[in-house]
Write a structure and sequence with these properties.
This protein is mainly alpha-helical and 110 residues long. Helices cover 67% and strands 4% of the residues. It contains five helices and two strands; from the N terminus they run ββααααα. The chain starts with a strand and ends with a helix. The relative contact order is 0.16.
Length: 110
């Protein structure tokens, strides 16, 4: 996949191919939840059922979730996971695996 994404804000994934986004994310968030969130990021960025704006917003939320998890902020993690869950539930191509990942990460902070 050679599609590039343009992220605006505190993320380091500005105008990079999906492979680079995933690798950078994994290098930044190398914990157990980071691996799961990297898989979620990959699913979101490859979804054909989400609009470009939804993919970018969701990728930003995933990055923010990982940052909150890294600093052990369970309330922020849960809030962001809820928003991610609402978005990915509308994407038939990734809804089931994405929901499984969201549930798994959520259980780490419950």
């Amino acid at each position: 996949m050679t599609e590039n994404f343009h992220f605006h804000g505190p993320t380091t994934f500005i105008n990079k191919p999906v492979d680079t986004v995933i690798r950078d994310f994994q290098n930044t968030h190398a914990s157990a939840h980071g691996e799961q969130l990297a898989r979620l990021m990959e699913l979101v960025l490859s979804s054909r059922d989400l609009s470009d704006a939804e993919r970018e917003d969701t990728a930003r939320l995933i990055d923010e979730t990982a940052a909150a998890a890294d600093t052990d902020e369970p309330a922020a993690v849960e809030s962001k996971l809820g928003a991610i869950s609402r978005i990915v539930s509308r994407a038939a191509d990734i809804a089931a695996p994405a929901s499984t990942i969201v549930d798994s990460v959520s259980s780490m902070f419950a």
